[in-house]
Amino acid sequence: MLEAARCIVVRDLLVAWRRRSDVATALLFFVIVTSLFPLGIGAEPDLLRSIAPGVIWVAALLSCMLSLGRLFAADHADGTLEQLLLSSEPLGVIAAAKACAHWLVAGLPLVLIAPLIALQYDLPAPLYPVLALSLLLGTPVLSLIGAIGAALTLGLRGGGVLLSLLVLPLYVPVLIMGAGSVEMAAAGLAPDGQLLLLAALLVVAAAFAPWAIAAALRISTE
Amino acid sequence: MLGAVDLACERGGRSLFRRLSFALRGGELLRVAGPNGSGKTSLLRILCGLLSPTAGAVHWDATDIRRLREEYSRQLVYLGHAAAVKDDLTAAENLRITCTLAGLSVSSREIQAALETFVLDDLPVKRLSQGQRRRAVLARLVVSESMPLWLLDEPYAALDAAAGRLVEELIGGHVARGGAVVYTTHQDTRVGASQVIDLDA
After folding, report:
1. Which residues are registered as beta bridge partners of B75?
2. Higher pLDDT, A157 or A119
3. First CA to last CA distance, chain A
4. What are the chain A neighbours of B97 within 8 Å (beta carbons)?
5. A107-113 long-range CB contacts below 8 Å, 24 or more apart?
6. Which residues pair with B14 in a beta bridge?
7. Whole-structure pTM value
8. Burial of B198 from C-beta contacts in 10 A (0-12 / 13-18 / 19+)
9. Contact: B83, A7; criterion CB under 8 Å
10. In chain A, what residues touch B81 (CB-CB under 8 Å)?
11. pLDDT computed for residue B106 by the predictor
12. How many whole angstroms separate alpha carbon B55 and alpha carbon A200?
């Protein structure tokens, strides 16, 4: 079972590596959007510090959305999705592997680059680990929930916009808790509560989302 | 082995076929014939479980395939209309991935041999022609001897005469070994089908 899951993760990473420009666009989008705010608002350190968590998190949400459309669409177009559906392992395992590969390509780079972005907002150094940790716990949830939407809107015309309308509202709890944890830490309070809630969200999403993705894939490939 | 009971299929409000029943035993070759749009691909997708029939059921060893799910998937090879290869990966990488997903463990030597059978260089698939792409897909049949059921949608499409003969030999060999094959085609082939379903009738 792990063999098939590992095979899909490796395959998707290999495809992503050979199409580096696709991966770079989502990451570059994140960097540019988060850089526009300090430029637009100007040198007001207090204001920048207070909006930083929210802006970085919203940009992470949008950047994640950018790459979601391709998650299953490429496999659907070249016919490999049918082979995934007919694989020797339960479809839930395959779906979990797809979401995991998406996170490694679209989520993990955001976690790594976020402290650098925070520099532009003059965020105090002790907040960097909190920001990175909140993203580390939150972005996998974005991939898992987003994959459900991507599977449901597979093959629909104008699926991209529909996907955003479907998925973004579901991202709200992650956004509130993710940005909230950094704001709590900035106010000198312990962010543990918010981070633990994020971790709980991750556990729930990891347990249930793969089966929802599998069901959605079966519906939309009929 | 494979049985279809009273299958019916409706696509886009149009009835493609109704009350279709057949039984296929090991060592038999079933050819699905019919003009374009008569439901050949839909029938094959129903047989492998990708599409649910409007009515009726497909049985594998007397058990409904909807209850078997991946247990049934482990028994079959389905080669669909689309090439099912990743453009950015090489032919060998594609073949290895498809085999791993199908639960087949094959060595790199077997993969190399399969590609050599179909005279393919190990290039990224996007640099191959349409026919070579089909060869890259069909190379899977060389290593799929252990799968009892082959479902092939237009296996001869876009192939030249040499590759066509190769596929005929593979299908013939599989049937001779006791495997079952269902395939659709427009062309006349030398492999004699033991059953023919004409969806036009």
Report:
1. none
2. A119
3. 25
4. 7, 11
5. A107/A64, A107/A135, A107/A139, A107/A140, A107/A142, A107/A143, A108/A139, A109/A23, A109/A27, A110/A27, A110/A30, A110/A60, A110/A63, A110/A64, A110/A135, A110/A139, A111/A135, A111/A136, A111/A139, A113/A27, A113/A30, A113/A31
6. B11
7. 0.92
8. exposed
9. no
10. 79
11. 87
12. 43
B86 touches chain A (CB under 8 A): yes
Q: CA A214 to CA A154: how far, in whole Å? A: 12
Nearest to B141 by CA among B109, B181, B178: B181
In tens digits, chain B (201 residues) has pLDDT values of 899 999 999 888 888 888 889 999 988 999 998 888 888 899 999 999 999 999 999 999 989 988 888 889 889 999 988 888 998 999 999 999 999 998 888 888 999 998 988 888 888 888 988 888 889 999 999 999 889 999 999 888 888 888 889 999 999 999 999 999 999 887 766 667 788 888 876
> Which of B84, B97, B103 lies at the smallest CB-CB distance from A82?
B84
Count of all residues that appear for chain B in the document: 201
**Which residues of chain B neighbour A3 with C-beta distances below 8 Å?**
100
Is A49 touching B (CB cutoff 8 A)?
Answer: no
Check if A7 contacts B (Cβ < 8 Å): yes
Residue B173 C-alpha, separation from nearest chain A C-alpha, in angstroms? 24
Q: What is the pLDDT of residues A37-88, one digit of tens each?
A: 999 988 888 999 999 999 999 999 999 998 898 899 999 988 899 999 999 8
Given CB atoms, is A78 within the 8 Å cutoff of chain B? yes
Verify whether the Cβ–Cβ distance A7 to B98 is below 8 Å: no
- In 3D, which of B122, B119, B127 has the Cα closest to residue B108? B122
CB contact (8 A) between residue A7 and residue B100: yes
pLDDT value for B190: 64
Q: Which residues of A touch B78 (CB under 8 A)?
A: 82-83, 86
Nearest CA to CA, how far is B88 from chain A (Å)?
Answer: 6
Q: Are the CB atoms for A183 and A55 separated by under 8 Å? A: no
- The residue of chain B with its CA nearest to that of A94 is B101
Angle in degrees, CA A167, A170, A176, rounded to 5 = 130
Structure tokens at A218: 């079966």
* Option in B70, B85, B87 nearest A89 (CB): B70
ipTM value > 0.95: no
